[in-house]
C-alpha cells in the first residue's frame, strides 16, 4: 500500500487536511466581505450581498445531483455493482451543471438589465457571479473523487487554488484592479478544475468518449436518477430557501442596512460551522459508508456518536469565540458600519448549537442516499425560516432581535427532529 493510500485511510489525517481547507474557505469568505466592503460604496455593497445570496442560491440549486452521484459511485466502488453506475453519467451531470450556470448567468443579466439589481459595475458583478458558479463543477469533482478514495488529491488541489485566489483578492487592497483580480481568480479555478478532472478520469479508467456520450449517459441518468433527483431537488430547494430566503425577506421588510448585515454575519458564522462539521463528517464517511453497507451496527453507531461529539465541540468552540471576539469581528468585518450586542451574539450561539446536530444528520444521510427522509424533516425549518421575518415585524420593538430569536427557535426545533432521525437510522442498521 502506498503512502498516499495509507494517509487516505487515516481518519485523523483526512480530517486534518479537510479542516485546513475549511480554514482557507473561511478566510476566503471573510476576505470577500473585508475587501468588497472597502472597495465598494455602501449602496453597491448592499447590492453585492444580494448577488452573493443569488450566487449561493445558484450553487445550491444543483439539487443534490452531486450527492446522488456520491451515493451511487461510492456503492459501486465498495461493492462493484456494475448496474449501479456508468462512467457516462459523469459527462451528463457535468453538462447539466454547466447548463445551470448558464441559466443563472442569464438570470443575473436580466436582473442587471431590468434594474432589479442596481449597480454601476455590471462587469465586476458578472465575473464574480461566474467565479462563484465554478464551484458547481468543482463540487462534482470533489464528490466523485471522494467516492473513489481520492480525497487527499482533491484537498491538495483545492488548498492550492484557495491560497492563490485569496492572494489575488487581497491584492485588490494593494492596488490591483478588483475586476482584474476576479478575472484572474476565474483562471486559477479553471486550471484547478481541469487538474482534478484529469485525476478522476485516470482513477476511473475513463476515455474521452465517456465524457461526451451524452445519449448513453442521459438514458442511464433518466432511468436511475429521476426518483432521487426529484426528492433531492425538493430537499435542496427547501434548504436553499430556508438558509438564503431571509436575505430577500429582510430587504423587503426593512430599508435599513443593519438587519441585513446582522443576518449576513449569522449566515457567515453558520456557514463556517457547517463547513467545519462537513469536514469532520466527510473524514468519517469512508468508514461510515463501509459499516452501513456491511450492516456493522456497532461500528456505525460509534462513528455517528463521534461525529455528533465532534460537531458539539466545534459548536462550543465557535460559541466561545463569538462571545470573546464577536463584537470586534462584526465591527471590523463591516468596516464599522454597524455594531452587534451580546444578546444578539447569544442568539447566534444557540442557533449554531442546533445547526451542528442538523449538519451531522444531513451530511451523513445524504451520503447514504436518504433524500426522501431528509425532505420531510426539512420542512419545519423551512416554515420557521420564512416566518421569522414577518413574525418579527409583527412583534414590534427591535426587529433585529426578534428576527434572530425566531430564527434560532426554528433551528432548535429542526435540530430536535434531526436528532430523532439519526437515532432511528442507527437502530435501522442494527436490525
Structure notes:
- This is Polysaccharide biosynthesis protein.
- It comes from Sphingobium fontiphilum.
- The chain folds into two domains: 233 residues, no CATH class; 178 residues, no CATH class.
- The protein is 86% helix and 0% strand.
- Helix 6 runs parallel beside helix 9.
- The mean pLDDT is 86.
Quick rundown:
Helix content is 86%, strand content 0%.
Total helical elements: 16
Q: Spell out the helices and strands N to C.
A: HHHHHHHHHHHHHHHH
Strand content range:
under 5%
Largest sheet: none
- Secondary-structure-derived class: mainly alpha
Q: Which outline best applies?
A: globular
Spans of at least 5 consecutive residues whose pLDDT stays below 50 are: none
The CA-CA distance between the termini, in Å, is 35 Å
Count the beta strands.
0
- How helix-rich are the residues, as a percent range? over 70%
Amino acid at each position: 500500500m502506498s503512502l498516499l493510500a495509507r494517509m487516505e485511510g487515516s481518519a485523523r489525517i483526512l480530517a486534518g487536511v479537510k479542516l485546513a481547507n475549511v480554514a482557507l474557505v473561511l478566510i476566503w469568505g471573510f476576505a470577500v466581505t473585508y475587501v468588497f466592503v472597502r472597495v465598494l460604496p455602501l449602496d453597491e455593497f448592499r447590492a453585492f450581498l444580494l448577488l452573493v445570496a443569488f450566487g449561493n442560491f445558484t450553487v445550491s440549486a444543483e439539487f443534490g445531483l452531486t450527492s446522488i452521484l456520491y451515493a451511487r459511485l461510492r456503492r459501486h466502488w465498495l461493492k462493484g455493482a456494475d448496474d449501479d453506475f456508468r462512467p457516462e453519467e459523469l459527462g451528463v451531470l457535468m453538462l447539466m451543471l454547466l447548463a445551470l450556470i448558464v441559466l443563472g448567468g442569464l438570470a443575473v443579466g436580466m436582473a442587471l438589465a431590468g434594474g432589479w439589481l442596481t449597480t454601476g459595475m455590471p462587469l465586476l458583478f458578472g465575473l464574480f457571479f461566474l467565479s462563484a458558479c465554478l464551484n458547481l463543477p468543482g463540487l462534482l469533482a470533489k464528490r466523485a473523487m471522494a467516492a473513489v478514495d481520492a480525497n487527499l488529491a482533491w484537498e491538495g488541489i483545492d488548498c492550492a487554488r484557495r491560497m492563490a485566489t485569496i492572494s489575488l483578492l487581497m491584492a485588490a487592497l494593494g492596488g490591483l484592479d478588483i475586476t482584474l483580480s476576479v478575472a484572474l481568480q476565474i483562471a486559477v479555478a479553471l486550471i484547478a478544475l481541469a487538474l482534478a478532472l484529469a485525476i478522476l478520469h485516470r482513477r476511473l479508467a475513463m476515455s474521452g468518449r465517456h465524457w461526451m456520450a451524452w445519449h448513453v449517459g442521459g438514458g442511464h441518468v433518466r432511468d436511475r436518477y429521476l426518483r432521487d433527483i426529484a426528492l433531492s431537488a425538493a430537499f435542496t430547494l427547501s434548504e436553499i430557501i430556508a438558509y438564503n430566503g431571509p436575505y430577500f425577506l429582510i430587504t423587503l421588510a426593512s430599508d435599513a442596512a443593519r438587519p441585513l448585515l446582522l443576518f449576513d454575519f449569522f449566515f457567515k458564522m453558520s456557514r463556517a460551522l457547517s463547513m467545519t462539521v462537513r469536514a469532520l463528517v466527510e473524514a468519517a464517511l469512508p468508514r461510515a459508508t463501509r459499516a452501513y453497507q456491511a450492516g456493522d451496527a456497532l461500528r456505525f453507531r460509534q462513528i455517528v456518536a463521534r461525529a455528533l461529539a465532534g460537531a458539539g465541540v466545534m459548536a462550543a468552540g465557535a460559541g466561545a469565540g463569538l462571545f470573546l471576539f464577536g463584537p470586534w469581528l462584526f465591527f471590523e468585518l463591516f468596516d464599522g458600519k454597524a455594531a452587534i450586542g451580546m444578546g444578539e451574539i447569544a442568539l447566534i450561539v444557540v442557533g449554531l448549537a442546533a445547526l451542528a446536530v442538523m449538519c451531522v444528520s444531513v451530511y451523513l444521510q445524504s451520503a447514504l442516499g436518504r433524500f426522501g427522509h431528509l425532505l420531510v424533516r426539512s420542512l419545519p425549518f423551512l416554515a420557521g425560516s420564512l416566518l421569522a421575518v414577518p413574525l418579527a415585524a409583527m412583534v414590534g420593538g427591535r426587529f433585529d432581535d426578534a428576527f434572530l430569536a425566531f430564527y434560532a427557535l426554528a433551528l432548535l426545533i429542526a435540530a430536535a427532529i434531526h436528532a430523532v432521525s439519526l437515532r432511528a437510522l442507527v437502530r435501522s442498521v442494527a436490525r
